[in-house]
Amino acid sequence: MPAAATTTESPSLAGLAGEILRLKAERRAVILAHNYQRPEVQDLADFVGDSLGLSRRAQDTDADVIVFCGVHFMAETASILNPSKTVLLPDALAGCSMADMISADRLLDLKEAHPGALVVAYVNTTAEIKAESDICCTSSNAVEVVESLPKDAEIIFIPDKYLGGYVQSRTGRRLILYDGWCPVHMEVREQGIAALKREHPRAVVLVHPEAPLEVSAMADIVCSTEQMVKAVAAHSAGEFIIGTETGIIHKMRRENPGKRFYAANDLAICPHMKMNSLQRVHAALRDLKGEVKVPESLRARAWLPIQRMLDLGLPYKESFVGCKC
Ligand code: 13P
Ligand code: SF4
Prior knowledge:
The chain is of the alpha/beta class. The chain contains 14 helices and twelve strands. The chain has helices spanning 2-27, 39-44, 51-60, 72-81, 104-113, 127-131, 142-147, 161-171, 190-199, 213-216, 225-234, 248-255, 278-287, 296-311, and strands at 29-34, 47-49, 65-69, 86-88, 118-122, 135-137, 155-158, 175-177, 204-207, 221-222, 239-243, 260-263. The protein has a four-stranded parallel beta sheet with strand order 2-1-3-4, sandwiched between helices. The protein has a four-stranded parallel beta sheet with strand order 6-5-7-8, with helices on both faces. A four-stranded parallel beta sheet has the order 10-9-11-12, sandwiched between helices. Strand 7, helix 8 (161-171) and strand 8 form a beta-alpha-beta unit. The protein is globular and about 55 Å long. The termini are far apart. The model is unreliable at 1-9 and 318-322 (pLDDT under 50). It binds 1,3-dihydroxyacetonephosphate and iron/sulfur cluster.
């Protein structure tokens, strides 16, 4: 009987959530979640945001344990910024396909080919890569980070060629790009957006700068995930086409019940982000397992470019970059 099935299932999920909250208090933990996390994980988190917002929360928290519901480079960044905390990644295999596309050897080759060039590393990189870089950026501040560098500097931008290409178009500066990309954002395509636009001509189009450049060019707004969340809340329009991983739509719908959201592609799902189930969050807190820690000598070198980015003191843009509407 369906009714009985629902009643037996809901209390167990609710029970798990309750047990997570109990353990969270016992461990003096905070739960941070990225905007692409599963809905039930977002609903339980103390803070849901983008890479920059999560880094800042991780740096500022006075909790003893940070349960980082995101992917490995995000948990690693949290640990680099706040090494006295126990940072747990509920599923140790939650990586990032783009971060895996560049190795330290390949970066060293690139630096050797361009001696004197400054390296801007997207935060979607490992600690080893950050340690070889001059400054980090996220999707919410990449334009400003590049603009902060000396006008005559040669700049290597790694690893995302699309974010780098977008920054080039916004700043007019020529960057040495690396051939990295996000397979999830490759699913955000022109045809899908064009079809949705025909169906919903008044819809505002938001695209993440990891999408291919021809897709970003179709957008009214190009920005980070949290800037998207802020933008749809602030915008007077009632319909939005969302060109990024679909998990973000949960937060948008919850915060804007009167507005409509259409995924540019329902298949734009990051398998790594979805690995952190409620069960794994529970196990991580219960057993304090899945700790992400960087050896101190590497941590100190990887910390510098992240801190340089944070020290720029760029105001967190509540709105967005490149709005055409
Ligand atoms: P944001 O910093 O915009 O949340 O992006 C992180 C990411 O990995 C997008 O794929
Ligand atoms: Fe990495 Fe792409 Fe997943 Fe973001 S969406 S975590 S860039 S694989």
